[in-house]
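## retry 2 of 3
previous attempt timed out at serialization; input unchanged, resubmitting
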Amino acid sequence: MRISAPAAVLFDMDGTLVDTEVLWWETAREVAAGLGHRLTDADAPEVVGRAVADTAAHLIGVTGGDASALPSTADDRAAALARTTAELTDSFFRKVDAGAPLRPGAAALLASLEGAGVPFALVSASPRSVVDAVVAGSLAGVDFAFTLSADDTVRTKPHPDPYRTAAERFAADPAACVAVEDSPDGTASADAAGCAVLVVPSLLPVAPGRGRTFARSLEEVDLGVLSDCLRRP
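## retry succeeded, writing output
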């Protein structure tokens, strides 16, 4: 016998429902090049699944390869961070706004949850402008209960705030919710909030752990799989 359905399903966006991680990597690569840094796989943990400001700080930190290339004062560093964050956001927005395909199985899974009456929300580390562009474009017509962006909590992923806030908005215990994620930081966020996690990796591998269930694609996922996540030790 399978246990009851999740109180809510909390979906990550980039790399989970929508194939935007490649667009984000391309954006970061272009901005890094403009700062004099060639993006490599070594940068991936600071780029994939991270908030825009985190990636901007990383790119500023590696610019030129030595401290002398960095902005010299606190005000200079803050200005550089703001410029790089804005450049990343604007470039990524233009790419996403031009169209980003859904991940395989995403449309069918969302439709099945809606048909079964299981509530679901979008919980993203992307800025509000990007979330709204994707929801109006690639995810148009999907009946999310609400969407959370990086702008909607004091801290975003990998901190627990986004998933904890989402569970609170459903008036649900996080342990009764299933988060669907693709990245290590997103998975860490959901773990820290107390959610069960279904991991469908995209660009970066995610380590096994307590409360984590893995699938190769959303095409393998249905309500039964999501329900079973709640009892995984």
